Amino acid sequence: MSDLQQLFDNNARWAEEITQREPDFFEKLAKQQVPEYLWIGCSDARVPANEIVGLLPGDLFVHRNVANVVLHTDLNCLSVIQYAVDVLKVKHILVTGHYGCGGVRAAMRDAQLGLIDGWLRTIRDLYYDQRDHLALFESEEERVDRLCELNVIQQVANVSHTSIVQNAWHRGQSLSVHGCIYGIKDGRWKNLNVTVSGMEQLPPQYRLRPLGQA
């Protein structure tokens, strides 16, 4: 038996269940992709994007990486954002972290892990910047969870500062960037109430004029 046979069997049952509920689901799905949401989340296997928010395939465009980081030098993530915003015309970008994130925890410690150390550097910088605030929390778990929230807030800002998102606003496109966090221990998805929906919410130094405007 193939090592993957159980997964193929699971897939067959899943496809059959959906087809029984909605016989033409996959036929319609194959013809178009019109999600209203882009999910930017962590690669952690315990954080399944569609299941958390109860959406079917086709409803959620997804990008995941370790610790849900958005860097202005990451062409992979920026390409996903650009396609979602400019082509799919999503209305909401959901930056979603999760409590107890291993990447965030690693950024708070001095152990070397390899290539990922460079990837987590911006979270380590955030940890240093917020060291006085984080020192107010008694336990390591509380500090990790708070830094998970702060990391989401920072990534919401990073997404909002991109020319991709700002050009959408210049065009009058309806687009909001939300910061959310997921609790692995209770399955709850929480709004951090840091939504950015327009240029006026950005610090002046990050606001970009429309392309070609002097």
What is this structure's SSE topology?
Layout: H1 5-21, H2 25-31, E1 37-42, H3 49-53, E2 60-65, H4 75-87, E3 92-98, H5 102-107, H6 116-119, H7 121-129, H8 131-134, H9 140-160, H10 163-170, E4 176-182, E5 189-191
The percentage helix is 40-55%
Structural class: alpha/beta
Across the major sheet, the strand order is: 2-1-3-4-5
Q: Approximately how much beta-strand content do the residues carry? A: 5-15%
Oligomeric state of the chains in view: single chain
**Measured on Cα atoms, how large is the radius of gyration?**
19 Å
Number of discrete helical segments: 10
**Rough outline:** globular
Q: Tell me, rounded to a whole number, the average pLDDT.
A: 95
The main sheet comes to: 5 strands, mixed
DSSP summary, beta strand count: 5
Low-confidence stretches: none
Query: What string, H for helix and E for strand, traces the elements in order?
Result: HHEHEHEHHHHHHEE
Characterization of this structure:
This protein is an alpha/beta fold and 214 residues long. 44% of the residues lie in helices and 14% in strands. It has helices at residues 5-21, 25-31, 49-53, 75-87, 102-107, 116-119, 121-129, 131-134, 140-160, 163-170; strands at residues 37-42, 60-65, 92-98, 176-182, 189-191. Strands 2-1-3-4-5 form a 5-stranded mixed beta sheet. A hairpin with a 6-residue loop joins strand 4 and strand 5. The longest helix is centred in the last third of the chain and has 21 residues, at 140-160. The protein is globular and about 55 Å long. The mean pLDDT is 95. It is an enzyme of class 4 (lyase).
